[in-house]
Amino acid sequence: MVSNEERSFGFRGTTFPAPAPALTGAATGRSEGSEASRESIDSISQKVGFGAAETFRHHLRRIYRNKSEFLPEIVRLIEACTDLFAMAEYPEDIYTEPADLDVDTLKNLGPLRGMAGIWEGRRGLDVNPKPEGPRKQAYVERIELQPIDPQANGPQLFYGLRYHTHVVKPGEVETYHDQVGYWLWEPATGTVIHTLTIPRAQVAMALGKASAEARQFELTATRESICSAPFLEYAFRTVEFRIKVSINPDGTWSYDEDTVMMVRGRPEPFHHTDRNTLTKIGEAEPNPLARAR
What we know:
The protein is of the alpha+beta class. Helix content is about 20%, strand content about 45%.
């Protein structure tokens, strides 16, 4: 006899855990361990996209009876419940901003504190797509990351760094790559956000989780958080971006990027990679509010 905890949904080698008791209760019209309100069931049903609660229960029963046949619905349920769990991190009051916050950004950057300042990297390596295949290109990089004043979205609070990256080929003057954006740290949720804008008409936002003391973290941008101009969508469509940052013991920091793109005329995704190690050549300046104290 297999218990509910041991049961799993399988489909072409993919395994999903059995639903939690609360979802099982929704499928049978009851809730284990708590009295779920009609409003909560209706809310979940609306977010999943099934409309009324009875329709939601109906589809859950169909999934239980014909589990491998309804993988898209299972995925949709998982995504909706994930959204609900994420929403649970936020308070009902969406307007009141934090009181008595520390305005010194440099003291509150969490895992980003080792990146503040002006940096130079002379060992950059770029692997990019060309008609004849991948091409490796060395590059020299200068990046400046300066603290900004604390930013609030109602109760949500960010500390962050505004940055500008300028890249050239060794011994050359012409810009090889230029990029601006923000590195943000949300202490309340342990979230790191990296935004980027490049002058080839593309923007992206990557997110990840880290502790305030983390010396290494990884962020991901998916299709939903990547926006490209029409030509790039046509010829070099970016489907994912990942960046892994390491704060090194010698005071340097390194990054390893992977931009996954579909190049027109090629059946397989191309991994456009960049990596470099940055050495500090200048200190960061305090943010405006910190300077004014």
